[in-house]
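FIELD: query
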Amino acid sequence: MNSELPKITNDWLAGFFQAEGSIYHNMRYKKHDLRISQEDPDILNRIIDFLGYGAHNDRQYRCSRRENTSNFFSIVYPYLVGEKKVRTGAECIIAGIELPYNIEPITWDFMIGFWEGDGGIYYNTQSSIRYGYINFFQKETDILEAIRDFLGKGSIVKSGLNGYRLQAPDLREEFLPYCRIQRRRDQLEASLEETRMTKNLRKQVLEMLKGQATV
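FIELD: result
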């Protein structure tokens, strides 16, 4: 049975917005919509419960009332990093949304939120054991560099035509208790189980070969 998921926090929400969020300038109605894309209605409902405003259509959280978008960015903007912070700030200024001046450092929850939005698990295919490594994907390297500096390790490599990937150490055990999205928690649990199974299988094969060599 799955344990209860942790509560949403300001810094987790900021990391999730860094990965999945945007401000959309609605020219037709002359307003700005705050959007967070995610095909998981449960986490969208939990975000609404946490904030106390907004709505979703099972695929996207949306909010357009000025007082609510102002409140949202007073929460997340201090944590945003790099180009995302610049673009979000510019859109907020155009929309007349006042932004806070304080800057918050990257936190563990911010990193988890960002991974749950835009991350994955990379497997070392050169080993008989299915070792999995936490990966983060982005078009810009600034957020990846910030997370790498926060962790103190990891490497950034080109991924596809227009993106980059930060390959971090094996942090699956550390990430697992902090996941807010059940699908992501299930993914980590399945990955860890696969690593355990391949480790045991390799051990059994080595013991069998050792036994044959002594005959």
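FIELD: remark
The radius of gyration is 21 Å.
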